[in-house]
Amino acid sequence: MKRLLTVVLAVVLSTAFVIAQEKTVNGPVITFESDSKDFGDIKQGDKVENVFKFENTGKTPLIISNVAATCGCTVPSWPKEPIAPGKTAEIKVSFNSAGKMGKQNSVVRIYSNASEPIEKVSLISNVLPK
Known about the structure:
This protein has 130 residues and is α+β, with helices and mostly antiparallel strands. It has 1 helix and 8 strands. The strands form 2 sheets. Strands 1-3-6-5 form a 4-stranded antiparallel sheet, with no helix packed on it. The protein has a 4-stranded mixed sheet with strand order 2-8-7-4, with no helix packed on it.
């Protein structure tokens, strides 16, 4: 019985591994040039923006369904149309430091049909008094 259970477990795990690899190999993949931007010291009230460039390095069209920021101080904009394999696109993210102080790490989550369905990019800064 123990041997049968071991064989069944091995088959299930190897099947899951094959399915995961097929999804990665055959589906869309987001590959960012850089997934973070550090602005260093900025003054309270400053607005900063970064463009995160990426490529669909997968084999099927990439569809970004939503992009969500951790707070209202961070505003993303993203392409609404599918990104074909081999094509590039951009996600623009702006951060308003009004009312913020100290080290800030504004994380933006990208929801898509990619092999990794949730990707993250971030804007980092240290907000100093005016």
